[in-house]
Design goal:
The chain is an alpha/beta fold. It has 2 domains: about 70 residues, Arc Repressor Mutant, subunit A (Orthogonal Bundle), CATH 1.10.10.10; about 120 residues, NAD(P)-binding Rossmann-like Domain (Rossmann fold, 3-Layer(aba) Sandwich), CATH 3.40.50.720. Helix content is about 45%, strand content about 15%. It is built from 9 helices and 8 strands. It has a 6-stranded parallel beta sheet, sandwiched between helices. It has a two-stranded antiparallel ribbon with strand order 1-2. α8 links the parallel β6 and β7. The longest helix is centred in the N-terminal third of the chain and has 19 residues. It starts with 10 loop residues before the first helix and ends with a helix.
């Protein structure tokens, strides 16, 4: 990610942007007008120096001694994260994880919405809709269904052995961003952004630190 000044933002900072946005939304809901770096840091669980360093990549977001304008920063991060308008998302793979994601109300928390889902053509749910009226199609219909649907983002929740094949189909259909729950590295064009979510790895890391203490 880059700022307007074309300064490269560290990945660790980029991963905290949504946390900052969430905190400022919470502060705004609590009618807090100003917040300093210590308050922000404590709400996220990091140190205030990290907050100030993160914010420094975006220029003057606040004035020393005056704190940060909560509403202004909430709107700033909303724009930065493209949360000022609805982002349509597609889901591929409606197994156990996929069904849970279909029931997760992204649009009630942020302006992201799963508008269609896909699975193998012979999957029993193909041709049906979810409880939230999300249509489920066969994977052979991906290219046809996303034409004109304003979808550039996909959630991938398929078996590892199928992940690369399905991801390649998504890219050919015009997808530019993939959130993958399949624990395998995907070889895709450089202009396609991939974010991995490996729940098993995260749980193992948690257990490691628990036993270490």
């Amino acid at each position: 990610m880059k700022t307007d000044k074309q300064t490269t933002i560290p990945r660790a900072t980029a991963k905290r942007l949504s946390l900052y946005y969430r905190i400022f939304k919470r502060f705004h809901a609590e009618r807090i007008e100003k917040a300093n770096s210590k308050q922000i840091a404590e709400a996220i669980g990091i140190d205030s120096a990290t907050v100030r360093r993160d914010f420094s990549y975006f220029g003057e977001l606040g004035r020393r001694g005056f704190g940060y304008d909560v509403k202004k920063l909430m709107n700033f991060f909303a724009e930065l994260l493209h949360d000022n308008s609805i982002t349509n998302v597609m889901l591929v793979g409606v197994g156990n994880m996929g069904r849970a994601l279909l029931h997760y109300r992204f649009h009630e928390r942020n302006k992201m919405k799963i508008v269609m889902a896909f699975d193998t053509d012979d999957h029993p749910d193909v041709g049906k809709t979810s409880s939230d009226s999300i249509p489920i199609y066969g994977i052979s219909q991906i290219r046809e269904k996303i034409q004109g649907a304003d979808i550039k983002t996909a959630i991938l929740s398929v078996p590892s052995v199928k992940a690369q094949e399905v991801a390649s189909i998504l890219v050919q259909a015009g997808i530019k961003g993939i959130l993958s729950f399949s624990p395998v590295h995907l070889n895709l064009p450089k202009d396609v952004v991939v974010q991995y979510v490996d729940l098993t790895s995260e749980l193992q890391t948690l257990l490691y630190f628990m036993k270490k203490d």
